[in-house]
Each structure stands twice: as C-alpha cells, then as structure tokens.
Amino acid sequence: MRNVFTYFMLFFIYAILGWIIETTLVSIEKRKFVNRGFLIGPYCPIYGFGGLAITILLKNYTKDPIVLFLMAVIICGTLEYFTSYIMEKIFKARWWDYSAKKYNINGRICLETVVPFGILGCLVMYVLNPITFKYLNMLSNSMLNIISAICFTIFITDNIVSYNVISSFTKTVKTINVGKIKDNTEEITKKVREVLIGKSFFNKRLMEAYPNLQAKIKEKARQIAQKAKEVKTEMSDKVESMKEKITQSASEIKDNIGDKVEEMQKEIRKKPSKKEGK
Known about the structure:
By secondary structure, the protein is an all-alpha fold. 77% of the residues lie in helices and 1% in strands. Strands 1-2 form a two-stranded antiparallel sheet.
C-alpha cells in the first residue's frame, strides 16, 4: 500500500515540476507571467503521468542512456499526442497546436517538444528519482498517508471545478439556438465571450494560458453567424416560394372559376326557352 502512496506523490511532484518548467518557458516567451495549465492549481498532470510512466516502464533501461532517451521520447510523445486528442474530443478545443513547427504529427506533437522530453526522461531516472525516493522513504507511513490524502483531495477537487469551468466552452455553443439568432458576427462573438469569460478569474486564466482557445471561440462565433445567415436565407426563400405558390394557386383557381362560369353561361344560352318550345 505504501508503494501506491509513494507513486502518487511522485506523480504529484512531477506535475508541479512540469508546471514550473512550462510556466517559466511560456512566461519568458510571452514576456509576462502566464499561469500555464488547464487546472487551477500549480501543476500539469501530463508531466506527472509522464514522469510516472518513465519511472515504471523504463526502470530496466538505466544502464543504456541512449535507449532510455529514445524510449522516453516515444512514451512522452505518445502521451502528449493522445492527451491532445482526448482533450479536443471532450472539450471541443485544441489546447496546443504545433502545425506551424517542422516535423509535427497532426499538430499534436513535434520534434521540438519530444526531444526535450527525452532529456527530461534521463534527468528523471538519473537525478530526480533517486532524490525524490530518498526523501519520500524518510517519511513514516502515517505521514505519507496524510500528505498523500491531502494532495489527492486538492487534486480531485481541482479537476472537478476546472472541468465545470472548461465545459462552458462546449455548453455555450450548444445553448445557442442558431435558428433564432439575428445578430451579426461581432455581436455573436461578444455574447459568446461574455458567457465564456464573464468575470470568472479561472476562465480568464485559461484564455491567457491557451490563446488558441480565443481563436476557437472566434471560429465558433463565425460558424454560428454563418449558420444563422443560412437559416435566415433559407426561411426567406421558403416564404417567397410559398407566396409564389399561393399566388399561382389563387390565379389558377380564379381562372378555373372564370372558365366554369363562362361554360355555364354558354350552356344556358344554348337551351331553348319554354315559350319557344310551345
């Protein structure tokens, strides 16, 4: 049972270290502090899972650094690819996109990111794991259990809250009745942003951490506006078509009645009167 708590703490520690690394790099690139990560707390789960996977799967490859490096690249690259795919399917938004970078696979992973993962894999196995396990093993069972329980509770609560916040991105689009929209693109975009951003600190942080989501919102707004125009045009065409059909039908009925009246008048004229018969 101790191993379970130890591995969870290992996951938690590497998730925090990953957040520190990614937040630092992105903040330097943007020249301002960017709280990277889709969760509220200072951790990126993908790094925790990556560190845990490397620790468990590559413990027998420490004697060969080259093989360890290549295996770490494969494991972390696969993890990053499927994390991107799954999150896009769940939240209908792509959280990172490497399409503009060389040697990328569907924009989800690229050579520029997986090579550092290989280096980090070696760093984990040769430097970080020995230090981390040393200090975790110094904790008593009760202390390890308490710390793990606290961290687990915080992490799960964070996931639940963050999931509800992020779900607003997909719920916003679904709650809009396209058939009733008469606004232009700019007004629709404003409405979408009001729902998504509002006064929520967490939503604003997500928009800063993942600017691609802003482009996603704009694209959704454009699609909604386009769909609204199509629906409006289609309804207008149907109304015009119905008017034409009604007008045509009325004209045909009028002509038919006129023809019938004329035929009846002719028939009446042809019949001899009673006086003539006598």
